[in-house]
Amino acid sequence: MSIKDLTLSQLMPLSVSSTPAVSIRKENKVWVATGMLIHYLESFTDSLVVTDEKEQPIGVLGGFEIIRNVFENPTSELFDEKTVEEIMDEEIVRVCQDTSLGELLERWQETRRAFCILPNHLGGYSAISARKLLEIGANCKTDLTISDLPWKETVSFLYDDTVGQIIHSMMNSRTRKLVFKNSSNFISDRTIIQTIAQDLDYLRNTENFLEKKVGESFKLADIKKIPENTNLSDLSRLMFGMMHPYVMTKEQVYSPWDVCIALASDDISI
After folding, report:
1. Could you state, in order of their start, the residue ranges of all structural domains in the chain?
2. Closest C-alpha among 126, 137, 131 to residue 22
3. Of 30, 57, 43, which is closest to residue 193 (Cα–Cα)?
4. What's the rounded mean pLDDT across residues 23-31?
């Protein structure tokens, strides 16, 4: 039986509900959520769960919602006056321990968000993100290597591109990372919101943010280079140990999302 037909509890019997969902109340201002995302994006989970006055989940908020709204309103008003409820995504994927991996991956491909919640024994919710599924990849048995993964076009940018061009490219291609052309450096939604929060004080004293040059405004991160014959299990273990997982071969770049999609293959067992 391939792993996509197994349930989440079968694949992660000891840890399926071990990652708590990070929540934020709907009435909180956007600057509060942005500050939280700096610490949680990729390194812990992918989205915040927005809750109502009864602590029930009503939506999700991630880096994509922040940068999309910055593109529409690049001022401090977004952060100081807008509430989380106003910009959140109301579509939230809920699963249970008996949900199969294949069913989960189908939902993620529909929403294009690698995040869902499932009820836990404490009466609350736990989070399942792309990072969480790296645990499954690390324990799987397969002959698949990186070179067997589907080819995809690498979305890149230039030094003189503006912040507006970068965000537009991210939204248009539905990707959270762009590669600096002909290099091993990249920029992500996390990089953008961290700069907004920590360096620009939530745009409170910044004008024409979208017109700023990327090369002059952000510190780019490095992509780890790996061989093309790296096994999928080894890749999963490598990414699981990285703070902000992103790797590249000579031809392609890969994120945890690519590993998740590969886990739907019929050639993988546990």
Report:
1. 3-138, 146-262
2. 126
3. 30
4. 97
DSSP state of 228: T
146-262 is a CATH 3.10.580.10 domain: yes
The helix-helix angle for 30-40 and 63-72 (nearest 10°) equals 140
Q: Work out the number of other CB atoms within 10 angstroms of the CB of residue 117.
A: 20
**Per residue in 147-169, pLDDT tens?**
999 888 899 999 899 999 999 99
Percentage of the chain lying above the pLDDT 70 cut: 98
Distances (CA, A) of 265 to 25, 142, 252: 38, 10, 20
Calpha distance 139→236 (Å, rounded): 9
Distance CA 200, CA 240 (A): 31
Are 17 and 121 in contact by the 8 Å Cβ rule? The answer is yes
Confirm or reject CATH 3.10.580.10 for domain 3-138, answering yes or no. yes
The answer to whether 61 and 33 are in contact (CB under 8 A) is: yes
Looking at residue 44, its pLDDT comes to 59
